[in-house]
Automatic annotation (TrEMBL):
Pfam families: Guanylate_cyc, HAMP
Positions of transmembrane segments: 40-59, 65-89
Superkingdom of source: Bacteria
SUPFAM superfamilies: HAMP domain-like, Nucleotide cyclase
Protein name: Cyclase
One term under GO cellular component: membrane
Organism: Mycobacteroides immunogenum
Length: 360
């Protein structure tokens, strides 16, 4: 049975290779699985029996009885020798294979700190060394991903690592909601404090703000001094980008309100078309969005200093809200924005349970 199965496997190996290639990472069901130990025992036993039978047939008298005895003795000796050889040989084969299987299983669970011992200079030793080289490459990729996540928005890092930088190379026009956030009174604050304290305050603030933006599907486009620009709808498109941006703004304001004595911020929202893509040159590129929509968001945020509101949104954002009931929306008088020839309608947003102050 074992010999027949092995011979069939050898003849069908090209077909099995094609099936495995077509199946990819899908497991292939196997009716008969022959361990390496059994394979070696069958082959060694067959060789020993054949050799012993031939020797028994050549040496000595050729009576039927003597031939039967010789063959019987040869088979007994062959079985003993085969057993010893299998015990000696299979350890040198199966133990490295088990090490590889165990390491592959740990890697499949995400443990990249594993390592395969190289116990010989044979083919299995070369295979183990190649496996370790592969693990080193996976560790390096994981390190790069972690570094990308530190210096790039994780959404951009994942897009680059999965699709390549070409996915961002071509600019495209998309509709987004831009969120601009700025710290109130930052100039006066920073003038009377050491640089280390200023940086610590900003890092603490952004440590709160950035996860909230990511939670609602936004992408931090850039940090601008004591503020930041976040985009909802790029690089990952979201039909409800305006709702996501407003929900993030409300959560940021609510979270900061629970920290008495902490920094106060103004948030401006504006929606519309932008050009999104890799911008830069000489080997240095950043994914960003450009266009009047972004500029107006910054102007809307500046207007929070005039109205006293924590959150202001433009009429373009209000019109795109699918769930405006999440907030109390209060119209503010139209005001001129720098860079705009006409006055712009603005709206204050606060949590639905709150009542924002009426403007005069």
């Amino acid at each position: 049975m074992g010999m027949r199965a092995m011979l069939s496997e050898q003849m069908l190996r090209p077909v099995l290779a094609d099936i495995s290639t077509a199946a990819g990472d899908q497991p292939i069901p196997v009716r008969v699985r022959i361990p390496v130990t059994q394979r070696m025992f069958v082959v060694t036993l067959a060789i020993a029996i054949v050799a012993g039978t031939v020797v028994a047939g050549i040496v000595g008298p050729h009576t039927v009885a003597s031939l039967a005895i010789g063959v019987g003795v040869s088979i007994a000796v062959a079985v003993s020798i085969a057993g010893v050889l299998v015990l000696l040989l299979t350890r040198s084969v199966t133990e490295p294979v088990r090490d590889l299987m165990s390491a592959a299983d740990r890697i499949g669970r995400g443990d990249l700190d594993t390592w395969v011992p190289v116990t010989g200079s044979d083919d299995l030793g070369v295979l183990a060394q190649s496996f370790n080289t592969m693990i080193s490459g996976l560790r390096e990729r994981d390190r790069i991903r972690a570094a990308f996540g530190t210096y790039l928005d994780p959404a951009i890092a994942d897009l680059i690592l999965t699709s390549g930088n070409e996915a961002l190379a071509l600019g495209q026009e998309v509709e987004v909601t831009a969120l601009f956030l700025d710290v109130r009174g930052f100039t006066g604050y920073s003038e009377h404090r050491p640089a280390s304290e200023v940086v610590a305050m900003l890092n603490d603030l952004f440590g709160i703000v950035v996860p909230i933006i990511g939670k609602h599907g936004g992408h931090v486009d850039k940090f601008v001094g004591d503020g930041l620009l976040a985009v909802f709808g790029a690089p990952q498109p979201h039909r409800d980008h305006a709702d996501r941006a407003l929900a993030a703004a409300l959560e940021i304001a609510r979270t900061l309100d629970t920290r008495p004595g902490g920094p106060q911020v103004g948030i401006g929202l504006n929606s519309g078309p932008v050009v999104a893509g890799n911008i830069g040159g000489a080997g240095r590129f950043d994914f960003t969005v450009i266009g009047d929509t972004v500029n107006v968001a910054a102007r809307v945020e500046s207007a929070t200093r005039l109205t006293g509101d924590a959150i202001l949104l433009s009429e373009q954002t209000l019109e795109r809200l699918e769930n405006a009931s999440m907030a109390t929306i209060t119209a503010r008088p139209t005001i001129p924005l720098r860079g705009k020839s006409e006055t712009v309608a603005l709206y204050a947003a606060s949590m639905a349970a709150e009542s924002p102050p009426e403007s005069g």
